[in-house]
């Protein structure tokens, strides 16, 4: 048994023992602290690495070595959950600050706690809302439990109210720019994982898209809404697509850039991944005619 596997087993044993004594644990990852619900502590933090840390590292490496952005800047984290992207982006990957948007009231509470635990209150602004194409309100289903009855903490916007569902505020990234919460001159990366709502978010992010701020998208084609409209916008303003998970997270990886036109055929894929989209310097992003 490898050292990593032994460590993973020890962590899982510790979490199991602690589950009868506390509703939360504090875990350390990449030099940052995270307050997490005990029900998901093993799933989220017992392993040696977290996939979003790897994806974030690859995205930052790509945009900086390609000279798309310099060090520092602002990350806009859409669907921030409890901060597992926002916090390492600032503490480990050199962003000066973050705007973290999260609709789930429980997750937003933990997100604020994790910002405080890492002494980032003056560098991270938490917005408790669901990013979308417009303002208003919507019904949000927190998806508290998985099949084993464990809290997983990811949710989605739904059409109807019902037990356990909550009304949340909707906000577009354009609204946050207009309110001077997001400074488009400082924005270096937009990161979004919103359970198929990415199209709506991009359609409401005109100012950042026109400025060709690099985007990381959690790409779940079977869940994706307004997919064709989203792809049309990206084809108009961006040039390049990088799959941040393939060949896979465990094997060696390098940024294999594809033309942005490669995104449209991927709408029929069954598999999920994370894409980085950006515009190559000094190249037109308009589609060929």
What would the principal axes of the Cα set say about the shape?
A: globular
Q: How many DSSP-defined strands? A: 14
Task: Please give the radius of gyration in angstroms.
Answer: 19 Å
The H/E string reads HEEHHEHEHEEEEEHEHHEHEEE
**Major sheet attributes:** 8 strands, mixed
Q: In what order do the strands lie side by side in the largest sheet?
A: 5-4-3-10-11-14-12-13
| CATH architecture descriptor of the largest domain | 3-Layer(aba) Sandwich
The overall pLDDT average reads 85
Structural class label: alpha/beta
Distance between the termini: 57 Å
Number of folding domains? 2
Low-confidence stretches are 145-153, 285-289
* H/I helix tally: 9
Structure, explained:
- With 289 residues, the protein is an alpha/beta fold.
- It folds into two domains: 1-48, no CATH class; 49-278, Vaccinia Virus protein VP39 (Rossmann fold, 3-Layer(aba) Sandwich).
- It contains nine helices and 14 strands.
- Helix 1 runs antiparallel to helix 2 (38-45).
- Mean pLDDT is 85; it is low at 145-153 and 285-289.
């Amino acid at each position: 048994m490898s050292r990593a596997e032994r460590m993973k087993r020890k962590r899982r044993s510790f979490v199991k023992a602690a589950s009868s004594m506390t509703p939360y644990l504090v875990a350390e990852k990449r030099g940052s602290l995270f307050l997490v619900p005990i029900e998901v502590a093993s799933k989220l933090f017992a392993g040696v690495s977290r996939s979003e840390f790897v994806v974030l590292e690859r995205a930052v490496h790509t945009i900086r070595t390609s000279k798309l952005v310099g060090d520092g800047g602002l990350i806009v984290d859409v669907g921030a959950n409890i901060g597992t992207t926002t916090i390492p982006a600032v503490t480990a990957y050199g962003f000066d600050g973050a705007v973290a948007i999260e609709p789930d009231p429980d997750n937003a509470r933990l997100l604020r706690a994790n910002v405080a635990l890492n002494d980032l209150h003056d560098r991270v602004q938490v917005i408790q809302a669901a990013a979308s194409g417009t303002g208003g309100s919507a019904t949000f289903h927190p998806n508290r439990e998985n099949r084993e009855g464990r809290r997983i903490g990811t949710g989605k916007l739904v059409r109807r109210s019902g037990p356990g569902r909550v009304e949340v505020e909707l906000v577009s990234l354009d609204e946050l720019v207009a309110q001077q919460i997001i400074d488009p001159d400082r924005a270096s990366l937009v990161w979004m994982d919103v359970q198929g709502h990415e199209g709506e978010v991009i359609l409401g992010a005109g100012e950042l898209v026109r400025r060709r701020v690099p985007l990381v998208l959690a790409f779940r084609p079977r869940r994706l809404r307004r997919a064709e409209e989203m792809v049309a916008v990206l084809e108009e303003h961006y040039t390049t697509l990088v799959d941040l998970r393939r060949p896979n997270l465990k094997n060696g990886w390098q940024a294999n850039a594809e033309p942005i036109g490669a995104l449209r055929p991927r709408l029929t894929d069954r598999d999920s991944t994370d894409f980085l989209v950006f515009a190559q310097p000094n190249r037109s992003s308009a589609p060929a005619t």
